[in-house]
Amino acid sequence: MKTTLPISGLLALAMTGFIAIMTETLPAGLLPQISRGLNISPSLAGQLVTAYALGSLLAAIPLTTLTRSWRRRPALMTAIMGFLAFNTLTALTSNLMVIMVARFMAGAAAGLAWGLLAGYARRMVPLPLQGRAMAVAMTGAPVALAIGVPLGTWLGSVVSWQTVFGLISILTLALAGWVMVNVPDFPGQRSQDSQPVSKVFVTPGVRPILLVIVLWVFAHNILYTYIAPLLAPAGLTGQIDRILLAFGLSALGGIWIAGAVVDRWLRYAVLLSLAGFALAIFGWGLAGSSPVVIYSSVILWGATFGGAPALLQTASADTAGADADIAQSMIVVAWNLAIAGGGITGGLLLQHAGISAFPWTVLALLAFGLITVWGARAHGFKPGARGVYKTR
């Protein structure tokens, strides 16, 4: 039995996640350039992010279901080629409608990719290494947020915003070769072994996990989306780049910690992560005008959120067993619903209640999440070391 991780193959999966997050979030960093380049308002330019999220939200479950019988590498390559085609189209056209369609389709490719990555990483290693393998495969998202998006935003001030998307396409082409060389292929699931989506959804433990994902990501995005006004009382609005860098670096540390403990203490890692996040936001609520408190809270927030994808997707895959890919596609839907909900709720809070309401709203969500995890002891978030991967 292999006792070491296939690092090169797992990093190729991580790069797939990196490109998915870069493709999703770059328009936010390039908003002024896109607005000027297409001669549209910033609010309309912001809908490039919305179109991508809608693609992921609507396509994740159907595409994962459609491709579940495919061999795994061709399915993954389909998603990667989707990024390549639609980012290239975005780079080459100035037609807003074409760009919106390309963004929607790129989001659909992301929905497929995220539905595959967790299960793929697990199949590349034996049971004792599955948690750590998933932690490595999930590093792409925080690296994109901590380094990739700031770098892409800076590049947008040097070259055109469409050139930045072209560079992402070149990176995607290199990834395709990397996957073909270093990522092994696996058979898909036989149609007679497949469960319908509705049956996977009612599998004991799946719904509590999805609810925790919605609550956790909802709370995170209320803060992350409106980080700029939240920093104003501490006089840190001009340090957003440093704040986000601190968040991203601590999130990388959180992934390392999650990878070290997920196979033995998954339940306790989730409980402590939610509790640590709540502690960080409680401090923010009490002393949101203190720069020291803000930086400390952001670092603890990042450390506790960074491991969330690995922890939650491991719990989901363990619970769903042979139907892990379908469960992962449900996670994509839940995640994107939470992103949209966090953005809308944060906007309403900012408009009607002010920033002082943010920490306490987030704390309420996290408390609900802690209660859900605590109650899912029998199914979903079991105590002790992870059990054998279920098959039928």
What are the salient characteristics of this protein?
Growth Hormone, Chain: A, mainly alpha, 2 domains, 17 helices
Structural features, described:
The chain is mainly alpha-helical and 392 residues long. It folds into two domains: 1-191, MFS general substrate transporter like domains (Growth Hormone, Chain: A, Up-down Bundle), CATH 1.20.1250.20; 195-392, Up-down Bundle (Growth Hormone, Chain: A). The chain contains 17 helices and no strands. The longest helix has 47 residues, at 240-286. The two termini are 23 Å apart. Residues 388-392 have low confidence and may be disordered.
What's this entry about, in short?
The protein has 392 residues and is an all-alpha fold.
**CATH fold type of the largest domain:** Growth Hormone, Chain: A
Low-confidence segments: 388-392
Mean pLDDT metric: 86
Query: What's the CATH class label of the largest domain?
Result: Mainly Alpha
Count of helical regions: 17
Decide which structural class fits the backbone: mainly alpha
Outline, from the CA principal axes?
A: globular
Number of domains: 2
The CATH homology group name of the largest domain = MFS general substrate transporter like domains
What profile does the largest beta sheet have? none
Classify the beta-strand content into a percent band: under 5%
CATH architecture of the largest domain: Up-down Bundle
Q: Roughly how many Å apart are the termini?
A: 23 Å
Cα-based radius of gyration, to the nearest Å: 20 Å
Task: Please count the beta strands (DSSP E, at least 2 residues each).
Answer: 0
Residue share in helix? over 70%
Q: What is the string of SSEs from the N terminus onward?
A: HHHHHHHHHHHHHHHHH
